[in-house]
Amino acid sequence: MEGIFGFSKPLWEIASRTTLIYFALVVVIRLIPKRRTGHLSPNDMLALVLIGGMAADGIMNGATSPADILLMIALIVGWGYVIDLLEFRVPFFRRCLRDRQTTLVRDGCPQWGNMRREMVTEEELQAALRRQGITDIALVRSACLEADGEISVVKRQGAQDGEA
């Protein structure tokens, strides 16, 4: 037995396993349509899920030692910070890792292909327009599914609330 603060596995194995799984999940999370992720960034959501899962294993006295769990948590937090830093400083990483807005309506015309790709139904779009006080899609200059999963709407010039 390694003791309460000893490692049960070699450090290189813990680091490589944690890093490999973390980046595999980053890719998987990136493929989830943005309307499903809510207001958390994919990296934030991923870090919370993984830390919670590992913490539960540590609390339940799983097969790994507390030192293993602490190292894994530190690696995940560290990689999350590195990814956020790269997204902030390197436009290429920002384009790869962050969702951009998707146009759902342009000049009163629904963009059906974009809606299909993002899995936004006509009913969901209409509900978002009603929340903005718009009852006729022809009054919409643009409606976009933002990176946080919300639908933002810009009315046409001169359009009044509720106009039909």
Characteristic terms for this protein:
164 residues; alpha+beta; CRO Repressor; four-stranded antiparallel sheet
Describe the protein's architecture and organization.
Helices cover 53% and strands 11% of the residues. It has 2 domains: 11-97, no CATH class; 102-155, CRO Repressor (2-Layer Sandwich). The model has no long low-confidence stretch (mean pLDDT 81). The chain has helices at residues 11-31, 42-59, 66-89, 91-97, 112-118, 122-131; strands spanning 102-106, 109-110, 140-145, 151-155. It is built from 6 helices and 4 strands; from the N terminus they run ααααββααββ. With 164 residues, it is of the alpha+beta class.
Topology of this structure?
Blueprint: H1 11-31, H2 42-59, H3 66-89, H4 91-97, E1 102-106, E2 109-110, H5 112-118, H6 122-131, E3 140-145, E4 151-155
Antiparallel strand pairs: 1-2, 1-3, 3-4
Helix pairs in contact: 1-2, 1-3, 2-3, 3-4
Family: Belongs to the UPF0702 family.
Protein name: YetF C-terminal domain-containing protein
GO cellular component, one term: plasma membrane
Write a compact overview of the structure shown:
The protein has 164 residues and is an alpha+beta fold.
